[in-house]
């Protein structure tokens, strides 16, 4: 399998090269040269397969022969070491819970998969190290820190916007030590992401062997396909069309879901549900892609003004807006609407949704008005405990602290404050 840059001005590369480089030399995101749909028989019998078997079939063409099948299966087994329950919230509407991993966020899947791929590629390179440079608006940092902790030959540097992640999210990325370093940026997520992209293209940092663990990296992004397959497996027996609503910030999840559809997964429609950072909803309304600086909200992991993965989605639809709109809708919601949805869900069903999942729920409810007899699934991307300062007062409850959180909540935060790219560059050396 070869990968090309979506800016079309860089050489094609292997899976290994794309993982290690993260971003192409022309600033473009990598995209697979060929997408081969899976055999119909795979979907006909998917309920008889384990999650690990499903994931292997979904990902193997993108890895090719660059990781032996036995090793790839081991990587998948270590990646999928937790459950992905589909929980009925109300009649015909389900929550796909992606927060049962080590850091209680969906990004555990991509971070664990990528870290193990990188460790395999580094196994014979004792002399050189890779530096994973990653920007986070919330959960990416913790998942990457956990996934890469102690991985030989890899240093991790995480940039996060000061005061714009929750206390628990901050503890998850600033307390682990070892090969994990956290940089607290005076700015918003887009500033962090811009610094990361600039560093990749800085030839004076070539000796650091920089790569990214944001969803711009194919090894972080592609495994996010898995849970769409798992949800289909669970709900297949109902024999109804499926509508997926993804709380969307950098658009990695929904982009991976569309890739799953390109592989043949029977999904009727996607909804990108956003907070007030509404670049994509506005694009669908007027046909103009006009990113604006991100605004802080209670669903902070979605505070992204210029979502990186949207260009991959456009590529899968060959920039055909009419075809795209057939499969895809996008709606935006305010913090007030989000809080009200959280209260309604809890009052009606006792289900505790955090702000991102509540945004996904709102978009799903709106889209289902257009789809008779469909089942709706919204992605619940992080455990409510990670947003207890929002969830507890909104719902009038006290959340028990899960074991995964207890392990970091009383640890001491260690971070370095920076406010410019030059300070990042000095830190990297």
TrEMBL record:
SUPFAM superfamilies membership: Tryptophan synthase beta subunit-like PLP-dependent enzymes
A GO MF label: pyridoxal phosphate binding
Swiss-Prot/TrEMBL catalytic activity: O-phospho-L-homoserine + H2O = L-threonine + phosphate
Pathway: Amino-acid biosynthesis; L-threonine biosynthesis; L-threonine from L-aspartate: step 5/5
Modified residues annotated as N6-(pyridoxal phosphate)lysine in this record: 107
Gene Ontology process terms (BP): threonine biosynthetic process
Entry's EC annotation: 4.2.3.1
Domain Tryptophan synthase beta chain-like PALP: 96-368
Cofactor: pyridoxal 5'-phosphate
Domain of life, per lineage: Bacteria
Residues annotated as domain Threonine synthase N-terminal: 2-79
Annotated Pfam families: PALP (PF00291), Thr_synth_N (PF14821)
Keyword annotations of the record: Amino-acid biosynthesis, Lyase, Pyridoxal phosphate, Threonine biosynthesis
NCBIfam families recorded: thrC (TIGR00260)
Family statement drawn from the similarity comment of this UniProt entry: Belongs to the threonine synthase family.
PANTHER family membership: THREONINE SYNTHASE FAMILY MEMBER, THREONINE SYNTHASE-LIKE 2
Protein name (record): Threonine synthase
Organism encoding this protein: Flavobacterium frigoritolerans
């Amino acid at each position: 399998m070869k990968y090309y840059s979506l800016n079309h001005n860089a050489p094609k590369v292997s899976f290994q090269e794309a993982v290690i480089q993260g971003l192409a030399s022309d600033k473009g995101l990598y995209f697979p040269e060929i997408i081969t749909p899976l055999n119909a028989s795979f979907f006909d019998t998917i309920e008889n397969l384990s999650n690990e078997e499903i994931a292997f079939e979904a990902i193997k063409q993108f890895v090719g022969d660059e990781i032996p099948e036995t090793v790839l299966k081991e990587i998948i087994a270590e990646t999928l070491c937790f459950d992905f329950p589909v929980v009925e919230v109300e009649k015909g509407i389900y929550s796909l819970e992606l927060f049962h991993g080590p850091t209680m966020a969906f990004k555990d899947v991509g971070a664990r998969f990528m870290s193990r791929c990188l460790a395999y590629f580094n196994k014979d390179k004792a002399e050189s190290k890779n530096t994973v440079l990653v920007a986070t608006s919330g959960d990416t940092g913790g998942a990457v820190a956990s996934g890469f902790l102690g991985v030989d030959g890899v240093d991790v540097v995480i940039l996060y916007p000061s005061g714009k992640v929750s206390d628990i999210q901050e503890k998850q990325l600033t307390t682990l030590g070892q090969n994990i370093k956290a940089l607290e940026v005076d700015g918003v997520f887009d500033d962090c992401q811009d610094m990361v992209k600039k560093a990749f293209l800085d030839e004076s940092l070539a000796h650091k062997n920089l790569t990214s663990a944001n969803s711009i990296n194919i090894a972080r992004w592609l495994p996010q396909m898995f849970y769409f397959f798992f949800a289909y497996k669970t709900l297949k027996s109902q024999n109804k069309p499926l509508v997926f609503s993804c709380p969307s910030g950098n658009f990695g999840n929904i982009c991976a879901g569309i890739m799953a559809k390109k592989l043949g997964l029977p999904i009727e429609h996607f909804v990108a549900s956003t907070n007030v950072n509404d670049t994509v909803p506005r694009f669908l309304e007027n046909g103009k892609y006009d990113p604006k600086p991100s605004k802080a909200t209670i669903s902070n992991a979605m505070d992204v003004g210029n979502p990186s993965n949207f260009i991959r989605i456009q590529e899968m639809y060959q920039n055909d807006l009419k075809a795209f709109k057939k499969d895809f809708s996008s709606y935006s919601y305010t913090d007030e609407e989000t809080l009200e949805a959280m209260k309604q869900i809890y009052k009606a069903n006792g289900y505790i949704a955090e702000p991102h999942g509540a945004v996904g729920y709102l978009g799903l409810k709106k889209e289902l008005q257009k789809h008779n007899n469909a089942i709706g699934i919204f992605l619940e991307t992080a455990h409510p405990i990670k947003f207890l300062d929002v969830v507890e007062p909104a719902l009038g409850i006290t959340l028990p602290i899960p074991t995964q959180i207890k392990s970091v909540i009383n640890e001491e935060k260690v971070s370095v404050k920076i406010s410019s790219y030059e300070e990042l560059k000095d830190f990297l050396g």
